[in-house]
Every structure is written in C-alpha cells, then in structure tokens.
Amino acid sequence: MVNLDIQRAVRRDAILLRRLYELYCHDFSPYTHADVGDDGLYTGDDFLADHWPDRNWSAWLFRLDGKLAGFAWLHGGSLFRPQDSQTSQLAEAGLLNGAHLLVEEFFVMRKYRNRGVGAAAARWLFDRFDGVWEVSEMAENTPAQAFWRKVIDRHTGGKYLEIELDTEMWHGPVQVFRNPANHSDSWNLADSGSPASAMAE
C-alpha cells in the first residue's frame, strides 16, 4: 500500500491543471476525436477562467508518494432535467431530492493506473461530501465504465442506480448514488480544504 495525498487546487494551480489536462485530452482523444490547435495544444489560454469564481466547482490534485498522479474536478448540479423520461427513475429510487454532485473530470496518469490510485481517490472524494453523486462515462469508453462500476459498487455495497442517458446533456451511462448523512462534509465547495491522505491498495 502507498500513500496518496489529495489536495484541493487553488487558482495558482491553473497552469499545472492545464498541463495535466493536456495529458488527459491526449489520452481520451480516441473517444473524443479531438485535435490539437495550431499551437499544439488542446486548450486555450482561457482554460478554466470561468470555473475559478464558481463556488459550486472544485478541482483536486492527486499525489502519490509526493509525485503528481492525477486530478479530478467536481461540480454541483445534475445531468438529469425535469423533462427527461429517466428522471422518474431517480424519484422512484429516492435519488431525486437533495444536492447533486457531478464528477466532471477524473484522470490518473498511466504510470499510476492499476495500482488502486483511482479507486482510493474516488472513494476519498465520495466520503468527503454528502449528497447524490452522479458519475458519467462516454458510451464508447468501456474501460471507464468498468472502473466506475467496480468502485461505486464497492463503495455503496451495490446500492446505486445506473441509467443510460441520451439527451442534450449526456450520451452514455450514469451511475447515481446517495452518500449516508454521517459522511464528513456537506456539499460546500467554498472551503479551500486541506491536504488529506488515502491509502491506495
């Protein structure tokens, strides 16, 4: 087992996040079919400019034994709209009411995959905030689907709902589950947070 440190990113980490996100974009280009610009980059100089003032958004950096290993960013909100037919499934499962949290992006560098880093980071984030979590994967990205199903199944003891969305908001599977009320924090991203550790198996 190794030590995984997780820290909330702040504005001065914007360049670092952009560099990591470039790796992420390259990694997922077979699914997104994205091309780099004439400057050789996927992102523009305004990368994340609109995100930092948003109190419902946060980014988190993963370090394994002191080395950068990946990132995640989270946002308060939902992929499900009142007019979507699938929204009734959330209501029937008791997952409609309450604050909803989206895992918008999640990335572990190739060197650190298959070492428990992603699972440990995901479960640490899940434990940090109460609410209804939504985790989505692109329809073509079957490895990500297998990863998240395994992690969420273990985290919830199988008590989660998976819904296939095909809307303007999202195309692909979405796993939805509620954290118990005794988890550490409510959904409040205004707090900058402090370093914390998780154990990667």
Word description of this protein:
- The chain has 201 residues and is of the alpha+beta class.
- The chain has one domain: Aminopeptidase (3-Layer(aba) Sandwich).
- Helices cover 26% and strands 29% of the residues.
- An 8-stranded mixed β-sheet has the order 6-7-5-4-3-2-1-8, sandwiched between helices.
- A hairpin with a 2-residue loop joins strand 2 and strand 3.
- The longest helix is centred in the first third of the chain and has 19 residues.
- It is globular.
- It starts with a strand and ends with a strand.
Provide a brief overview of the structure.
The protein is α+β, with helices and mostly antiparallel strands and 201 residues long.
Record keyword descriptors for this entry:
201 residues; alpha+beta; Aminopeptidase; 8-stranded mixed sheet; 29% strand
Low-confidence stretches: 182-195
What is the 3D shape? globular
The CATH C-level class name: Alpha Beta
CATH architecture: 3-Layer(aba) Sandwich
Order of helices and strands: EHEEHEHEHEEE
Total helical elements: 4
**Helices and strands: which structural class?**
alpha+beta
Largest sheet: 8 strands, mixed
Based on CA atoms alone, the radius of gyration comes out at 17 Å
Number of discrete domains: 1
CATH superfamily: Gcn5-related N-acetyltransferase (GNAT)
Indicate the mean pLDDT.
Answer: 90
Oligomer: single chain
Total strand segments: 8
